[in-house]
Amino acid sequence: MEEEFILSQPNKAYRQLAMPLVFFAIFSAFYNFIDIFWASLVGSDSLVAIGISAPIFLVIYYLGKNIGQGTNAVMSRFQGAYNLEQTRNTLLHGILICIGISLIIPVFLFFSLNGLLAFMNIPSTIIILIDSYLFPISLFAFVFVFALFFSETIISEGDSKRPTIFLIIGNIVNLILDPILSITLGLGITGLAYASIIGSLIPFFQLIHVYYKNTKIKIVWDDFKFDYEIILEIFKVALPNMVDTFMFSVLGIAMNTILIFSIGPIGVSMYVLFDTLRELVTSPTRGGARGLLTIVGHLYGAKDMSNVKSLFKYSFKYEYVMNIISIIIFVVIFIIMLFFFKNILTYLISDFTNSQLFKMILLLIIACTIIPICYICSHILNGLGKSIYSLLNSILNIILMIGFSYLLTNYLHLGVYGVLIGIIIGEIIVVILYILTTQKIIKNIENKYMNSGM
Questions:
Q1: Residue-wise pLDDT tens digits, 181-216
Q2: Distant-in-sequence, close-in-space partners of 75: CB < 8 Å, separation ≥ 6
Q3: For residues 308, 314, 315 and 321, what is the CA-based torsion angle, rounded to 10 degrees?
């Protein structure tokens, strides 16, 4: 996708860039759901261990994505300004950052993981399972980091198809290996970790090959020139997103802790199911919104804020059409499975009553109507290099979620519903602030360009 097309027809370019990302997000969400299904077959303790490990794995998995988004944002700006040399140099800076992060992760987890689990009051039997799952993943952290990093940076060229295809192939391999390694070979939860590693090796090698052989912006180390400003600009987007990811991991740990102390492991199971289904239902919007970062980055580099403002409005219409369709499809499928294929659901909801399940689904639908706004605003702010505002909104969101969840669970004794309602209340408040913040930032930059005569 050429710069001229992106700058002259940003709405159309956004749709073209978004569709492969939407497809991958949907597939990835189904993949996560099936992964949870296999964990439930391994054993109920394994499902709880996966649920507790998820926030920590989220940090490992998304570090590469966060650095990739930061690098993408800077690369997109240089491409919008037709500066190919600095675009390549930015990519090389991002690679070096990822190498450093990949070395830090296993060392950090080795010294801190068990202390964290003890603080959460996790039973020793489940701690053993968590260790078996997370330590192989931490040792191969570089695979996850670089697979996600390269998939984000290639998108800066307007190419979302190849990384989508490579990641989907890796996920399919992962799904095939899950039952073979965990159940057939008897490796249990460790088998699920190995399956994830092997699945991510495929996009890791494919994307490296693409960057060395078949992209406009190739990896050529002779072009590297250390530039402190590039690192600063990458981290202006990446660091807030990294802290954002870390904070949401803290949210997951806090929710699991609240649930374990208040109602026990069944609360963790329901929270894991709720979170997985929420990711599944909102996956089209989550995927489509990723395309905004690249398009906004190009427009920002070209100092075309009128089209940024127009794209902001257009993305709401586009994303919410997909979101409403997704919610309707989910409700229809859920009703069909509940009445005609309940034996399939039994593996995941065997401990839940019908009343508990219906209340959870109702709260899930409410949450799914709110969350797309956060995705849209967050990626637009990333494209403008203003991720710090996204971070501030996320920190406030997490504080509100934990606060309301604690109050509703411990003082109104609503159990797991207190956590779910607390999440929704926090999101409603933050969504309003997100819209106001994004509109204000766009207007300020537009006024700045107008006053400077650009």
A1: 888 888 888 888 898 899 889 888 888 887 777 667
A2: 87, 90, 91, 153, 156, 217, 297
A3: 180
